[in-house]
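Input record (one chain):
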Amino acid sequence: MISKDDAIEIGDTAMNRDPRKYPFGYFSGGSFVLDSTRVFMWFASKEELIKHIAECDPVIHDLDEAEAVAFTHEVAQIFNGNVDLSHENLEKLNSIAKSFLCVEWWGTFDELVRGPSELAKDVRLSLRDDESDSPVLESEMDDFIELIQNYGF
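The corresponding structure, as predicted from the sequence alone:
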């Protein structure tokens, strides 16, 4: 099992990556009702994203070793060799993680930039003063990336 310090360092790295180079991400935080902090994390592949959720999030959220191992096993059963970031799999993941973690969104950076999800629209609305949730323009991209690195705090 990974140490808490290593899990936190890996998480910090994932939060600060450029999503144009690490296009698979998720937006999550603790499931405790008063825990309103959420963060985006970015990865090179869907497999790396799922591995982070399975191996780092339980440690970051203070699960004991037996709970963390059980969670990792349950995550593996959901994906069973086929990493599909579908809404159905998101619901399954949140069902098994509900005691410590809530993943509000997962997908690609392009889906966040252009997609129809409520979170994508909300983030894009936060970017602009004109109340537009239209796709992010290339001229807005650096500001958008800076926004998502701080979004949810």
